[in-house]
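Hey,

Quick one before I head out. I ran the complex with NAP overnight. Inputs first:
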Amino acid sequence: MKIIITGATGLLGSEVSLYLKEKNYEVIEWNSKNQDITNINDTIKNIKKIKPDVIIHLAAFTNVDKCEEEKGKAFLVNTQGSWAIALGAKEVGCKLIHFSTDYVFNGNKGTPYYENDLPNPINYYGMTKYLAEKKIIETLKKYFIVRTSLLFGKKRENFVLKVYEKGKRKEEIKAPIDVITSPTYVRDLLLPIENLLRSEEYGIYHIVNSDYCSRYDLAKEIIEIAKLNCEVIPITQKESIWKAIRPRFSALNNTKYELTFNHKMRSYKDALIEFINSLL
Ligand SMILES: NC(=O)c1ccc[n+]([C@@H]2O[C@H](COP(=O)([O-])OP(=O)(O)OC[C@H]3O[C@@H](n4cnc5c(N)ncnc54)[C@H](OP(=O)(O)O)[C@@H]3O)[C@@H](O)[C@H]2O)c1
């Protein structure tokens, strides 16, 4: 099976690439340097040249605050770039596995979101990702849209790593108590992605570690697991330095994925212990 991975240098993409190469899939790794997806014609031309069986589309402008400031770039990469990938996939008739976010929701529901809950993004990143979902659904039949949230792993800066590093330096950590979601370990998405590679049960799936927590609770758990000696101070989102507003409750419900693929996602708490211990 020949697979293009876009965003192969990213937090999730680097793990996906490694995992699939180890399993002897033929993997073509794209990043912003060797294939800028904002160059539509070139992107489609190269998909046609490679003729993949599957594209795993992980490339995105993921800095939520910067998306608010650089709206043009956010639209070009997240929406238009994803549309170009979908157009290329259509040309060659391949399957597309596209990654999206819990930030397509406004966070007002109060219980974990299902795939058929209505998106209503409240920040620009969420808007560009929601528009990408719509273009993919309009363009293709053979698509998986995977919504996930608050990824943690080793490859690049993320909330969990940042808290851990600050804790090691004994710096004070402030984290919002009123922003709740499902933290997800990138390695726990590897088996789900492999399941999708082999599946024809197309559609939207929420795939996250189970259970959810506030950023404050998560920061406290990280410090406890790592046995670090530093203070975690609860703040509200309004008191944070964020430029973009985050949904106050954007936990996702995994049931559709778990029943379709007979695979139970473990709690983020177990994943967090494994991840933090791998850093010690
Ligand atoms: N991180 C999260 O917490 C989170 C939460 C929910 C959903 N997601 C979604 O999950 C997916 C993976 O996220 P991630 O956090 O792993 O991403 P990431 O670490 O920010 O990596 C982004 C990747 O996209 C590539 N890229 C950026 N602009 C590009 C362009 N113009 N053309 C081609 N490639 C470009 C980057 O390449 P370079 O290395 O060359 O710059 C990099 O490989 C994304 O779709 C994201 O929206 C992420």
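The longest helix spans residues 71-92.

Talk tomorrow,
K.
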